[in-house]
């Protein structure tokens, strides 16, 4: 059985350079508007050097998205069945909001892929993502059935956390245009508002 070849330090460094450059180019231009030449320039690598690691623009995009999805799903994986249900859900909400604050380009990249019909990661959505969400939805249902949190559709609860937190990354320009310069950082108030909203919704009557 063939063992995967270990990458050298230089190879790991160049893959990170390409990934960081691709994130900037794809998030600014979308997949269709981005080119390998742009990514190579952003990474300060020659085009042949870049193509040594990734033979096509599609390969770069898929690598970036699959890596992003793994990171993006960590907070959901960390929801602890042994924890206090409301605390676990609120912690998940707060971590998702923090990711939108700290990684807006990644959020927009993922959103653009979904809006295009997820041509490069549809298989991951239908397998890894679905399996994880099914597992956490079943856990939330167990908590609801035992009366530890109020009843709500567990899938739409997860969907609403996604949309309400990632909105602050994907619609950053709109938010700042409306709030104006007196409120340059919307995240503290957003966290307070969303925490109070989900606490009221999920606290058992």
Automatic annotation (TrEMBL):
A single Gene Ontology MF term assigned here is:
transcription cis-regulatory region binding
Biological processes annotated in GO: negative regulation of DNA-templated transcription
Q: Which domain of life is it from?
A: Bacteria
Keyword set, alphabetical order:
DNA-binding
Quote the SUPFAM superfamilies the UniProt record gives: Homeodomain-like, Tetracyclin repressor-like, C-terminal domain
Q: Does the keyword Electron transport apply?
A: no
Q: Does the keyword DNA-binding apply?
A: yes
Pfam families per record: TetR_C_3 (PF08362), TetR_N (PF00440)
Q: What is this protein called?
A: HTH-type transcriptional regulator RutR
What species was this sequence derived from?
Pseudooceanicola algae
| Lineage of source species | Bacteria, Pseudomonadati, Pseudomonadota, Alphaproteobacteria, Rhodobacterales
